[in-house]
Amino acid sequence: MAEPEWRRIAGFRVVFTSGTGFAPTPPPPVNWRARLAGVFAVLLIVGGAAALGVAALSQVHAPQPGKGAAGSTAGAQGPRLPRSEPVAVSIPAIGVRSSLLHLGLNADGTIQVPSVYNRPMEAAWYKYSVTPGEIGSSVIEGHVDTLKGPAVFFRLGALRPGNSINVTLADGVTAVFRVTGVREYAKDDFPTKTIYGASSHAALHLITCGGAFDFNTGHYLSSTVVFATLVSSRR
Predict the structure, then answer these.
(1) Under DSSP, is residue 152 helix (H, G, I), strand (E, B) or coil?
(2) pTM for the predicted model, two decimal places
(3) Alpha carbon of 116 to those of 30, 119, 122: distances in Å?
(4) For residue 18, which of 35, 5, 31 has the smallest C-alpha distance?
(5) Greatest Cα pair distance in the chain
(6) pLDDT of 132-177, one tens digit each?
(7) What is the pLDDT, as a whole number, of residue 7?
(8) Pick from 218, 195, 222: which is nearest to 208 by CA?
């Protein structure tokens, strides 16, 4: 028998023989129904991948703060208010109106955030920070988006120095803050002391996710932070 000859057809190794050793086995009859079903399945897979690609490409990205919005992270000495827990926040420039949850820490020491499934359109005051209007850093956090679309702080990165933030307090007073700066920080280089630490004036810091989205981890790589200082109050 002659030495078998190896060839590749459609990526598979197939043996051909010459001479009188073996006769090739006739191919089985073509099952056209199975072949069409296989082609249809491939089209579904490709079509699904294309749909996912289109969805990713068409996703509207949240506004990101530019260099011109960086401003200052520190405000000047101004008015102060007595302790009163916040109940709502409004930001006219970006159309935000939200009641405020009061959240603390998770068991592992990380900051609690509103449920992305049940309360994505609600912001939360970090209850271990000072109340808005007290001397110190008061912190409010909210989601930027969900799998279904924008969340409460989707447009936070569009704020600019000079914009107003109004926080309604439990005693009926509305604390009026003015934005001094809007910045983006990589999460692995987040300035915790600057955001949560002591302040010599009545400061308000608003936080949400920002920057690029990592599809492998399902998280944003940066945080958008708005710095504001108390300028007045009203009933």
Answers:
(1) coil
(2) 0.74
(3) 52, 6, 9
(4) 5
(5) 104
(6) 999 999 999 999 999 889 999 999 999 999 999 999 999 999 999 9
(7) 42
(8) 222
